[in-house]
Structure formats: C-alpha cells, structure tokens
Amino acid sequence: DSYMASAAGTGAGVFSSSGNVISRSTITSSGAGWTRAGRSFTGWFGVYPPSDSNIIDSCYIQGSTAVYVEESVGASIKNSVLASTWTGGYGLRNATRSSRLAVSSSSITGGPGGAAVFLDQVNSISINLSSNIITGPQAGAYSGILIATQTSATPFAGLAIAGMTFMDPLP
C-alpha cells in the first residue's frame, strides 16, 4: 500500500517504461502539473511513450486529470477510482496514438465542464471499457464519455463498451 501526493505537480508518473504494476495505492495531486510541447499535464500522468503493458489495479487516483494515457500500448486500469477535481478536468483521458487500452470495474468522475472519459483523436487498435461506473460532478455542465472525431490517417479500429453504468448527479 502506498500514498503519493503532490501539492504542486504530478502525483506520480510512468515514463518510457513497460510492465509496471501500481496497485493498492492512493495518488493525489492538487497542483498545476507540468508542461510538454506547450501542453499542460496535471494530476496523475499514467503512461507515456514508449510505455507498454502497464497496469493500475485497486487504486484511488485524484487530480485535475486523474489518469492521462498517451502513446501507450496495452495499458490496463482495473478496480480503481479515477476522480477529476478541476473545472474542465477528466477522470480518464486517452490521448493520441494509444492502443489496446482496457478499463474495467472502475468508478470514473470528471470535473465540472469536463468529462469522466475523454477519448482523444488519433487512437488505434482497440479501447475496451467494461463494468465501469460513470458519475458527474455536483454542479456544472458535464459529459460522461466524450469521443473526439477520429482521423482517417489512423483508423480507429474499435471501441467496446460493456456494462457501463451512468449514475447521478449527471445532468
């Protein structure tokens, strides 16, 4: 069991690493995060290239974007709570060029004006969401699952959603 917290940046991160398992941990961030290529990342930065087959199991993760996945192959999130705490934040953001993401038996909450799950452009292969609970913030506009328009340059091979439950207070 681990507890990782950051008042000024990312709670934890896996960069250019494969086969990691983070389990039974609490990871929080309340800071502004860090910037890469003009983009700001906050909260828990999940997996970043070339990170393959990383697993998050039975964790509580909270931040402006709780889990951020980019350029990853085979990331798995299960039995976890992902909670965004910021306006416009995401519980889970699957960014560009990721494949074979699997999220199961987890509870995911986005911030006001954000989304519980955001599937960004340029994803390929497959994304599987099963037996998850999606909840909204106490106030403000909100999306349960937000899917960006995929480009023809990288065919989006599949999104599988099974057993998704949407709970109050979604508008």
What would your notes on this structure say?
- By secondary structure, the chain is mainly beta.
- It has a seven-stranded parallel beta sheet, with no helix packed on it. The chain has a six-stranded parallel beta sheet with strand order 2-7-11-15-18-21, with no helix packed on it.
- It is globular and about 40 Å long.
- It starts with a strand and ends with a strand.
- The relative contact order is 0.14.
- The model has no long low-confidence stretch (mean pLDDT 78).
Strand content: over 45%
Quote the average pLDDT: 78
Estimate the global geometry from the Cα principal axes: globular
* Main sheet overview: 7 strands, parallel
Q: What's the number of extended β-strand segments?
A: 23
Query: What topology, given as strand order, has the largest sheet?
Result: 1-4-10-14-17-20-23
Order of helices and strands: EEEEEEEEEEEEEEEEEEEEEEE
Helix tally equals: 0
Unreliable parts? none
- Class derived from helix and strand content: mainly beta
Q: What is the radius of gyration computed over CA atoms, rounded to a whole number of angstroms? A: 14 Å
- The N- and C-terminal alpha carbons lie at a distance of 36 Å
Helix content: under 10%
